[in-house]
């Protein structure tokens, strides 16, 4: 054997072997190559992992939102009807004192102070609505003659008016209500309040107790209630209220002033013959 060739051949084959210029299939079975291949495949799987996580997070968020909405729908009244006063509603806990013997400004025999207290409750009965608010209600209403808005009222004030009228009817000898429509008016008011109570039932619980020297169960009317803050709601109405006797706001398009002031007194004729047609400019 040629010593020179014997020395050079192995080195030349090792140096120039074509298989050394590429990674052979067998070499890829070694751990170092398996790790590189696994990392490469892992990076390719990242987008799919992100998509799956996004889908799961979205599904979880939707589930939580649906649960919260379901709970709120049971705790809060849904917005099935629009009211411009909705944003003025604030809830609070109020303890009622329903004792039979309790005194307050709204109870007792007829007297000027009591009448003033009830009248104060409904002083903001008549309110103005804007055209935009009226459109949201999908209702029509009388446009005030002075152009300040449209005539409306919150139902709660009408319910209080009805209670006030029923109370007056119980003391007919004091208030001398018009007998022509008194019974019809009372009947209307009772049924209107009935509908209101059934529409918005108070779910507070009245417990029954034994009372000394009394055979039957006695209701404890001293109960906590979830109430709308009346002062806040009444303040909202007061900013929109107007006086129907102001000789400028309520004017019938054909019959003139609704409540014309004649000889220092308001004429209170709703319809029929004998109506004096008086326009605001004539009453000045």
From TrEMBL:
<feature type="transmembrane region" description="Helical">
    <location>
        <begin position="48"/>
        <end position="71"/>
    </location>
</feature>
<keyword id="KW-0472">Membrane</keyword>
<comment type="similarity">
    <text>Belongs to the ustYa family.</text>
</comment>
<keyword id="KW-0812">Transmembrane</keyword>
<dbReference type="Pfam" id="PF11807">
    <property type="entry name" value="UstYa"/>
</dbReference>
<keyword id="KW-1133">Transmembrane helix</keyword>
<dbReference type="InterPro" id="IPR021765">
    <property type="entry name" value="UstYa-like"/>
</dbReference>
<protein>
    <recommendedName>
        <fullName>Tat pathway signal sequence</fullName>
    </recommendedName>
</protein>
<feature type="region of interest" description="Disordered">
    <location>
        <begin position="1"/>
        <end position="20"/>
    </location>
</feature>
<dbReference type="GO" id="GO:0043386">
    <property type="term" value="P:mycotoxin biosynthetic process"/>
</dbReference>
